[in-house]
Specification:
alpha+beta; TATA-Binding Protein; nine-stranded antiparallel beta sheet; 9 strands; 34% strand; globular; disordered C terminus; Mediator of RNA polymerase II transcription subunit 20
Length: 209
């Protein structure tokens, strides 16, 4: 699977750009297969913990994906990905002495799933709070679980509707080589995409100051 950000078309809104992409998919012959949602909440190390143990603060991302309704993913940046039961969120409430929820940082991608032959495509609007911040496109080649075996085919298909915005090889692929691709690899890609969009939103604010 590849998860990538698509820039908003010049002179268009996020929603209009999403419609342009989905129209291209439908013209190819892709059919709607329901909806999807990936969300991410940020937790930071509690101040009391940092002080007592002399550690630097760490961020942990707790994520959900509608493709895996019974699972919850907890990721550290540049670190491991824990796959837990859906009730992991309840455990995080009990761990508030160690990890605190940065509530204003919740981000999610929500949109439509499309099936085209052996490909599954999800075009989502990325939102933080009430406003749309960007566009995500996830493309999966369903028959294959070895990333290197199907990347060229995946890229060729993405070019058919993403054009110049077709992404390069995701960073998670570089560590997989010939090993089996897992759901955790998809969540790492979403985490990187969400962080990239968060940083893009922070730049103009810094410029105004």
């Amino acid at each position: 699977r590849s998860v990538a950000q698509v820039p908003v078309a010049e002179g268009k809104s996020v929603q209009q750009t999403v419609e342009i992409l989905t129209r291209k998919l439908e013209l190819l012959g892709a059919e709607k297969q329901g909806t999807f949602c990936v969300d991410c909440e940020t937790y930071h190390t509690a101040a009391s913990t940092i002080g007592s143990q002399g550690q630097t603060g760490k961020l942990m991302y707790v994520m959900h994906n509608s493709e895996y309704p019974l699972s919850c993913f907890a990721l550290f940046e540049n670190g491991p990905c824990l796959i837990a039961d859906a009730n992991f969120d309840i455990l995080m409430v009990k761990l508030k002495g160690f990890f605190q929820n940065a509530k204003a940082n919740k981000i999610e991608s929500r949109g439509t799933r499309y099936q085209y032959c052996d490909f599954l495509v999800k075009v989502g609007t990325v939102t933080m709070g009430p406003s749309a911040r960007g566009i995500s496109v996830e493309v999966e080649y369903c028959p294959c679980v070895i990333a290197n075996d199907c990347w060229n085919l995946l890229m060729e298909f993405m070019q058919s509707f993403m054009g110049n915005h077709t992404p390069g090889i995701p960073s998670v692929f570089s560590t997989k080589h010939d090993s089996v691709y897992s759901p955790a690899d998809t969540m790492v890609q979403y985490m990187e995409l969400f962080n990239k969009i968060r940083k893009q939103q922070q730049v103009p604010v810094a410029g105004i100051r």
